[in-house]
Amino acid sequence: MSRKNSGFAADLAAGIDLSEEVAAPRRSSIAANVLTGRSNRLADLASGAVVNRTHELVDPSRCRMWAGHNRDYALLSEERCADLIESIKAQGRQEIPAIVRRVAGDPDHDFEVICGARRHWSISWLRSHNYPDFKFLVDVRAIGDEEAFRLADIENRARDDLTDLERARDYLRALDAYYDGRQRTMAERLKVSESWLTRYLDLARLPTELTCAFSEPQELGVRNAIALKALLKPADRKERAFREAARLATAQENSGHPMPVLDVIKALALAVDPPTKSGSPKKSGKPETIASAGGKPILRIEGADRKGIRLTLLSKGGASRQEAEEAIRAVLDQHWV
Fold it and tell me: What is the distance between the alpha carbons of residues 117 and 68, in angstroms, rounded to a whole number?
């Protein structure tokens, strides 16, 4: 013990035995460590090394969905949320907070949900089905719309329960809302390739005159969009595709039996390019070149005969292997029986 500390201890506790005197520096050391820890924590917070989040347990009825949310809340159901409902019941609480921000000027709501529509729906459902004490766990953030869009996209990009069509429509909305229609800027902000983003935008841009042929449009994926987009040019092929789509929609509604997605695509492709009267495949005419979104040639359809389709793979055209694989899949979706 230092001379200064010895004098201080002697003045306060004369006659204390040796064991107690030795214990004093230990308590001082613990206190010093606590103060040092608090000091380091404050320094980390100030520097941004640690972010202090505000989590609250709230009534889900006081939360509304953000207008830019990338999930169609109306499509949520007990079936789509069954795994989450069972998890919350087993844990006795919601484990992962939803991301929300505060709203002003709305007497019915205090927050809007940026990420966590399924969690909101599940807690609301449980509260109305014998679990009235469950609360909605939220992480309150102060963020703008573009940042909210990117945050929601990052959280949901790897989720299987968010359909390609929901994600595609969200991207198309965000393209004009946040990036002035500049696809390259949007791809850079999302840290994805332009070709990857193009495939989703193509899916979102498919006309309803074509997608009406599918009883469950939410089942359409980005790979399907490649085959469907090919049916829209030139104008006479697009017109035949629209007529066939309307016919298929009526037939499925009347029969009550929805067709699988690939069967619908095959029917549309057959209506657009019908076989000759002899029943043989359409004879080769002018070769058709399929290009990437950036205009790079990928493959050329030379023609068809009784034996099949003849293709030339343009491997030196400048397109990527991924784009080539997707173009080949599109041809398979159209012609493979």
Answer: 12
Structure tokens at 281: 């495949």
pTM: 0.61
pLDDT of residue 19: 41
Q: What is the pLDDT of residue 327?
A: 81
Q: How far apart are CA 207 and CA 244, in angstroms?
A: 14
Query: Is residue 337 very low, low, confident or very high in pLDDT (cuts 50, 70, 90)?
Result: low
Integer Cα distance of 102 and 307 in angstroms: 64
Q: Find how far residue 256's CA is from the centre of its chain.
A: 31
Q: SS3 of 216, please?
A: coil
Q: In what order do the strands lie in the sheet with 111-115?
A: 54-58, 136-140, 98-102, 111-115, 63-65
Q: How far is CA 229 from CA 79, 183, 238, 250, 316, in A?
A: 32, 19, 10, 22, 24
Q: Model confidence at 141, in pLDDT bands (50, 70, 90)?
A: very high
Tokens of 7: 């004098």
The yes-or-no verdict on residue 129 having pLDDT over 60 is yes
CA angle 63, 117, 61 (to 5 degrees): 25
Contacts of 250 (CB under 8 A, 6+ apart): none
Distance CA 238, CA 209 (A): 10
For each of the domains in the chain, give its residue range(s) and CATH number, in order of start.
3-47 (no CATH), 54-162 (3.90.1530.10), 206-274 (no CATH), 281-337 (no CATH)
pLDDT attached to residue 288: 76
Phi, psi of 180, deg, nearest 5: 50, 35
Write the DSSP string, 220-259.
--HHHHHHHHGGG-SHHHHHHHHHHHHHHHHHHHHHT-PP
pLDDT of residue 82: 94
| Cα–Cα distance, 157 to 143 (Å, whole number) | 20
